[in-house]
Design goal:
single chain, 300 residues, mainly alpha, 72% helix
Length: 300
Amino acid sequence: MTEILFFFEVVLAGMLAGTMYSLVALGFVLIYKASATFNFAQGAMVFFAVLSFVGFMELGLPFALAFVVTVFLMIAVGYATERLVLEPLMSQSEDTMLMATIGLAFVLQGLAQAVWGVEVRRLDLGIGDFPIPWVAENLGLFVSALDVAAGVVAAVLIVILALLFRFTKMGLGLRAVADDPGAAASIGIPLKTIMLMVWSAAGIVALVAGMLWGARAGVQFALVDLALKALPVLIIGGFSSIPGAIVGGLIIGVVEKTLEVYVGPFFGGGIEGWAPYVLAIFFLLWRPEGLFGEKIIRRV
């Protein structure tokens, strides 16, 4: 019985971590759906957003006001990115857009550290990283309160975004732009407005993701590496699918935790660092478009 409870504890911890992976991956999905471009700057946006949030609080702003100011800052970053970087390159190839996002990533990383410094900051969200007493006493599961809170926040934000993009005019416009930008523009859908809204949404998602991860690991440059952890999530779920980002994140979270606990000791530990990428390779060989991606048929 104890082994079964421990297994459920490991799986639950993996699912909670997976929701946060999904949140990071969602930022990639939003940009990819609107422009068919992989945004290599998403990890830098996570770092820039949460470091700015902590910096504003260090200047004396209360938590809520610092959050609101950072939200407007990320909207401004999205606006500047769309107007100064993407719009001039709109007629260029996808490779050019990709390189532009890589350059943007380095700009955001350098700007964040130039303004706020390079020290590791502690972020306290008011939720301790300790097992929930009631769950531990009644169910025998030692689940961190911070993990549960982060998982709930991530899940709520994902659901809200999914509903917005499915049942609102913005969502309809986004799907039209993703299917055929030229046709969408011809029927009056404002491409610039859609792109601005998408980049702003990606910035807000980056802020929330950075706050959740920063509360656990500290606000530091290593948060940029979250982008790399989102890659297997996108490969498994599909680059253009919001449900795919959710399912892919849950799969990665559960797989890495269970393998680390049950297989990791045979490899000296650290298996969760590379196991998701091995799984992603198998998906690329078996179903390269992902579980929810559109299958591409190429004629030879």
